[in-house]
Amino acid sequence: MITNAPIKALSAADDDHIAPAPRVSVQAFCESVETAAAIQAAGEDRRLDKAHLKIQMGGITAAIEAYRTSSTPNIIMIETESRNRDILNGLDSLAEVCDSGTRVIVIGHQNDVLLYRELTRRGVSDYLIAPVGALDIVRSICGLFSAPDAKPVGRVIAVVGAKGGVGASTVAHNIGWSIARDLQLDTVVADLDLGFGTAGLDFNQDPPQGIADAVFSPERIDTNFVDRLLSKCADHLSLLAAPATLDRVYDFSNESSDSIVDALRVTMPFVVLDVPHQWSGWTKRTLIAADDILIVAVPDLANLRNAKNMLDLFKASRPNDRRPYYLLNNVGVPKRPEISSADFAKALDDTPVAIIPFEPQVFGAAANNGQMIAEMSASHRTAESFRQLAQLLTGRSETKKSKSSLFSPLLEKLLKRA
């Protein structure tokens, strides 16, 4: 009997979620080649894809001269090898030519708490100590737009099949449902397969509007417009359904999904994208831009080849992100030759986060009833796998605590004594 494999644990380091930066202009003035190279590498990170980055040498002196006759960008990055007093004097001179609203990040070579406090007092947004890596730069720039007083930016989870018909949509929908119902986190499931999407069927919904209205009206997309397109499926769960009709051709530009995903990020803490198995400019861009990627495969040779190609591409395109996850679905079909999970793991140099067995009765009944697996049987082992996957992909290890009763403090004290 094939059982569900345990889900890999998520460490705190793995869960370093960095929200992407909006469309901003960044100019860096470096004094060392190493720092310039790190900033150049950061500019190729997916989270700075919308930022316009320019790098010059010369440090703070070059920055002062550059802005005497031109306006300043949204963000200025300054590397300086000077001592404390010289840094402060240079920043005072830079402030005289800076436009209001420009944010300054300083990269220094002095590990000095008093200097950091003085820089903060003078309005410097961040102080990094050299040497810096590409991820340090990404975190610093993106962190300016995810401060406590800034608008929250949701986490995007993209689920895609290594091949058509492997059950990626079913996995995506059940994970989205589990994030909302088990973890009680506001979530939206977006079905990006406009012609053949099944999210409406799986959630037993037939909304009059959906994602097609957003795709074909890009000029109207904002948070209010997208919010009107969402249909409520359950507490904490909304659906952006696909029309699943063939009365028009769904050919998109590479950036067609950007504005939709950006609007959903602002609306919901968690966005689960059900990405169709097709290779085009917009699907590739959508997958690479996601915070986490989950590849669904079945244990045969074509899936192994495709999963390896996808993993290699995503790792190369996302060097500062954790590697994509993959799971094996429909494992243990009677009389079907299969590649073992151990051989899969060896070929992909990574173990699957879950192994979901072939159980046609429970999955078929859930699909025909428009229900999730946990709705059919909350204690089913596959429902538990989806709960663990929800925890892994959200970085949450437990659900929100329910309201405490009158006796909760007393019970807690007794438990501690025990």
Quickly give the CATH architecture of the largest domain: 3-Layer(aba) Sandwich
Shape: elongated
Estimated radius of gyration: 24 Å
Mean residue pLDDT: 85
CATH class bucket of the largest domain: Alpha Beta
Oligomeric composition of the shown chains: single chain
**Secondary structure tally: strands:** 13
Are there runs of 5+ residues with pLDDT below 50, and where?
A: 10-15, 399-418
The rounded distance between the terminal residues' Cα atoms is: 39 Å
The CATH topology of the largest domain, please? Answer: Rossmann fold
* SSE pattern, N- to C-terminal: EHEHEHEHEHEHEHHHEEHEHEHEHEHHHH
Number of helices: 17
Strand percentage lies at 15-25%
The helical percent reads 25-40%
Structural class category: alpha/beta
Spatial strand sequence of the major β-sheet: 8-9-7-10-6-11-12-13
List the helices and strands and how they pair.
Elements: E1 25-30, H1 33-43, E2 52-57, H2 59-66, E3 75-79, H3 84-97, E4 103-108, H4 113-121, E5 126-129, H5 134-143, E6 155-161, H6 168-181, E7 187-191, H7 199-202, H8 211-215, H9 223-229, E8 231-234, E9 237-240, H10 258-267, E10 270-275, H11 281-289, E11 292-297, H12 301-317, E12 325-331, H13 341-348, E13 355-357, H14 360-369, H15 373-376, H16 381-394, H17 408-417
Parallel strand pairs: 1-2, 1-3, 3-4, 4-5, 6-10, 6-11, 7-9, 7-10, 11-12, 12-13
Antiparallel strand pairs: 8-9
